[in-house]
Design a protein that fits this description.
This protein is α+β, with helices and mostly antiparallel strands. The chain has 15 helices and 21 strands. It binds flavin-adenine dinucleotide. The site of flavin-adenine dinucleotide (FAD) has 37 residues, from α1, β2, β13 and α9.
Length: 509
């Protein structure tokens, strides 16, 4: 190892962020660095990150995890998308399914043919052309298979899992890959006089842990990035006004749905995430518009099975750290910011931050150009996700509460305003390079919440009206046929990845 290379990496925190970082670094850095992770049994983790997006499969693949074993260990289930209830209007719902909707043809997307067909005949809603959406509504699931042009080849899925068990699973993996775990509470951070870099952290038991690179995975408190380095935070609560969540698990009352449900309430929304051994529920709300007591009673009145614990309150401010990498500290996980769990993006951001850090791994000189590039890429990624989340609140016709009136009429970032305008004009949606959500994701939320383009793409008229309708009919028939061939989600789990001792908490009959 040359003298310019860093040798010692210290990860502060053992929640999902800490152990994902440790697992990836343990594997990728292949014991060429000393990697230590410090966590305190006295300070609990957030422990509610239970829903993911399909990119997590890349993370699992990079680690070489066996997917069935991972699901068994974490009491996991499969996720085809998110059902949004009462977002556009009360009584309406739609699914943001992963994967595509219909097949594109020629130069234009499927939905342009659908927009045109809608003007010719009474065709089914756009969702009828997405296998993910149709299968989700029928509680069916299977992994994509090689089936030629059938939509079965293009099923896209993510997972629901128990966040505590996921961290435990990754801890076993990381320790097997050489990561050393240190238990104890950090009580101080020691900075170098010459440049203000972190030199070491001091533990309650008197130990000092020094390092070259520190990764702050200490959660909302941002022990190093904020408490020691005073990096600053960009507050986005004027756009994403929810600032509290009450989380409560319930018993299982029915087979697990292969999707997350997000039900809008008067000042926020409620999640429902089915696992093998319990169901995760939570109410995310804005304390400016509703009290904790009222939020609690809304949550408890909208559960479909008995609770297993008392609701747990979590407070947060939506936004991001001004710099995720400052000096020799990189903030990953909640210490880097939080945008609320509506589209299950936080665990993905941990994954992409680790990948970015590995790609820009520093030498001892900590070149500022690399640090700036890291921060530029992080900002770009989270700002695009932020805009996608704001869309859910802005694109509503709800006027039944002060919260929804605020959201419907609030100023939005110019980039989001541009996208909405472009869609409303001629149904055009473009995915920027490296942006997380694909055009089809934007389409489902814009369409699902009632935005409608004034016109369709002129090239859709290259088909005769009859050909256009037939094109749609074929797509729908393929989706229906594929859905009919799929097993139920519960059967799929039972066959491939049922937890061996599920300790299921069944509801009393
Ligand atoms: C309400 C809510 C719902 C969410 N739902 C989802 C979801 O569905 N999908 C998703 O992707 N994400 C979700 N998230 C986000 C997800 O939970 C987090 O991204 C993830 O858990 C990472 O948390 P973390 O590891 O950064 O922090 P934490 O879980 O808070 O872990 C912090 C760690 O730091 C340690 N620590 C702190 N201080 C000290 C100290 N002084 N000394 C030693 N150790 C210390 C603690 O012991 C702990 O191990 C949700 C978040 C919230 C708040």
């Amino acid at each position: 190892m040359s003298d310019t290379q860093i040798k010692d990496i210290v990860i502060v925190g053992g929640g999902t962020a800490g152990w994902m970082t440790a697992a990836a670094m343990g594997k990728m850095l292949n014991r060429r660095y000393r990697i230590r992770l410090i966590e305190s049994d006295e300070i609990s983790t957030v422990g509610v990150g239970e829903a993911t997006i399909p990119k997590i499969k890349l993370f699992n693949m990079a680690l070489g995890l066996d997917e069935n074993e991972f699901i068994k260990f974490t009491q996991g289930t499969f996720k085809l998308g998110i059902e949004f209830v009462n977002w556009g209007r009360i009584g309406e719902s739609y699914i943001h399914g992963f994967g595509d909707i219909g097949r594109d043809m020629g130069l234009i997307e499927f939905y342009q043919y659908w927009l045109r067909a809608k003007q010719i005949a009474d065709v089914p809603d756009l969702q009828a052309y997405s296998l993910n959406n149709v299968a989700a509504k029928q509680d069916k699931f299977m992994r994509a298979i090689d089936a030629g042009h059938s939509p079965l080849s293009r099923i896209a899925n993510a997972f629901h899992f128990d966040a505590g068990l996921y961290a435990r699973y990754l801890r076993l993996y990381a320790e097997a890959h050489g990561v050393q775990r240190l238990e104890g509470k950090i009580v101080d951070t020691l900075l170098r006089d010459k440049d203000g870099f972190v030199d070491a952290v001091a533990m309650e038991n008197g130990m000092k842990i020094s390092g070259d690179l520190f990764i702050d995975c200490s959660g909302f408190r941002g022990l190093l990035i904020e408490q020691a380095l005073k990096t600053g935070y960009e507050d986005w609560s004027h756009w994403l006004p929810c600032d509290r969540a009450l989380a409560v698990p319930t018993a299982i009352s029915k087979p697990p749905t292969p999707y997350t449900r997000a039900t809008a309430h008067k000042a926020g929304w409620q999640w429902r995430i089915p696992l093998q051994h319990r169901v995760g529920n939570g109410h995310v709300y804005s304390s400016r518009f509703i009290s904790d007591d009222e939020a609690t009673s809304i949550l408890l009145n909208h559960l479909d099975a008995p609770t297993l614990t008392e609701p747990r309150l979590l407070k947060f401010t939506t936004g991001k750290r001004k710099k995720c990498w400052n000096k020799n500290v990189v903030a990953i996980g909640l210490s880097s910011g939080f945008m609320e769990p509506l589209e299950s993006t936080s665990i993905h951001l941990i994954q992409s931050s680790v990948a970015r850090l590995l790609s820009l791994l520093p030498n001892r000189d900590f070149d500022q150009t690399d640090i700036d590039e890291y921060n530029r890429q992080c900002d770009y990624e989270v700002e695009r996700i932020r805009d996608f989340l704001i869309l859910h609140y802005k694109a509503t016709q709800r006027d039944d509460s002060a919260f929804w009136n605020y959201c419907r009429t609030m100023e939005i970032p110019p980039e989001l305003a541009r996208r909405i305008k472009l869609y409303e004009a001629n149904g055009r949606i473009y995915r920027d390079q490296d942006e997380l959500f694909a055009s089809v994701g934007w389409l489902q939320v814009m369409h699902g919440q009632g935005l409608r383009p004034k016109a369709y793409h002129p090239l859709a008229e290259l088909l005769t009206p009859q050909e256009n309708l037939q094109f749609l009919e074929i797509q729908k028939a393929q989706v229906d046929q594929a859905a009919a061939a799929m097993p139920s989600h519960a059967d799929f789990i039972a066959k491939h990845c049922a937890a061996p001792q599920p300790q299921r908490v069944m509801m009393q009959a």
